[in-house]
Design brief:
With 305 residues, the protein is α/β, with parallel strands linked by helices. The protein folds into 2 domains: 256 residues, Metallo-beta-lactamase, Chain A; 41 residues, no CATH class. 26% of the residues lie in helices and 28% in strands. The strands form 4 sheets. Strands 6-5-4-3-2-1-18 form a 7-stranded mixed β-sheet. A 7-stranded mixed β-sheet has the order 7-8-9-14-15-16-17, with helices on one face. α8 links the parallel β14 and β15. The relative contact order is 0.14.
Length: 305
């Protein structure tokens, strides 16, 4: 399987700074591009990263706060200028619908492509989208307005058939897919060659969880258990726990507690408060709980191998 690649396009919080842009990410999975949140400046960071805007077919929005959606009008308009004709699907809370309708009515009436909105029930954990490559599940989060995260699960590919077995037993090409799907092979003399001997197991499917703005929720770990890569907001350091509780955000330590309880492979923290001048303090706080933690930054690419 190809690696899943995550690109950080913005990892700041509500107040833009000279150091960070608002939340936006792009996930590449088996040749498809999925955008996650769409803060201001996303078009510029995509160009700097060499990412094609027209490849994005689905955008997943966690909640209707400006730092997660204000990049949508510009991106939708630029896609039209680039000659887009294929549909663009946007998934998000019902509250996002009025914003999108206004944007399209005022700025995008003459577009040659269709924007289709899919409302998400943010309080439920359920399958919101799937294609041949992946499933996307909603993750209920606790914020000041309806908000959810997203769990991307790569679909498991079939085992690989061993070339030497094809040659040794004269297996015709027409039967290869049947064997990959679990069939055995019977030779001309009646000998049954089991499926397990004929194939090599596929590399296990990978997963990515995006946990946007949220208050620390112990039950979250159960939903994302065993995830390969977890992005979790870490707006504040633990010394500002009271403010995190008041604004319904998480501290770096709490993000790490979630990663540890979920047995995540790696944690990346972001959504930094504008008051944070050195994110390494957040990193150290998180690594005290979960060692395999890294900092998000604009332009960072993380491959899930």
């Amino acid at each position: 399987m190809e690696p899943i690649s995550l690109y950080i396009l913005g990892c700041g919080s509500a107040k833009p700074t000279l150091r960070h842009l608002p939340s936006a990410q792009l996930l590449e999975l088996r040749g498809k591009s999925y955008m996650i949140d769409c803060g201001e400046g996303v078009q510029t960071t995509m160009q700097r990263a060499g990412l094609a805007m027209l490849k994005v077919g689905h955008i997943f929005i966690s909640h209707n706060h400006g730092d997660h959606v204000f990049g949508l009008p510009g991106l939708i308009s630029t896609m039209a200028l680039l000659g887009r004709t294929s549909q663009l699907h946007i998934h998000g809370p019902e509250e996002l619908s009025a914003f999108l309708e206004t944007v399209q009515k005022i700025y995008c009436e003459a577009m040659e492509y269709e924007v289709i909105f899919h409302p998400i029930r943010t309080r439920e954990h359920y399958l919101i989208y799937e294609d041949r490559s992946a499933e996307v599940w909603s993750i209920p989060l606790r914020h000041r307005i309806p908000c959810c995260g997203f769990l991307f699960r790569e679909k498991q590919s079939l085992p690989h058939i061993r070339r030497e077995m094809i040659d040794a037993f004269g297996i015709p090409v027409s039967q290869i897919n049947n064997i990959k799907a679990g069939a055995s092979w019977t030779t001309a003399d009646g000998t049954v060659i089991p499926h397990e001997r004929l194939t090599i197991p596929a590399i296990p499917a990978k997963s990515y969880a995006y946990c946007s703005d949220t208050r620390f929720t112990p039950g979250l770990a159960k939903i994302i258990q065993g995830v390969n890569l977890l992005y979790h907001e870490a707006t504040f350091a633990n010394e500002h726990l009271t403010q995190a509780e008041r604004t319904m955000h998480s501290t770096a330590r709490e993000a790490a507690m979630t990663a540890k309880a979920a047995n995540a492979g790696k944690l990346v923290i972001g959504h930094y408060s504008a008051r944070i001048k050195d994110e390494h303090a957040l990193l150290n706080e998180a690594k005290d709980v979960f060692a395999n933690t890294i900092l998000a930054r604009e332009g960072l690419r993380i491959d899930i191998l």
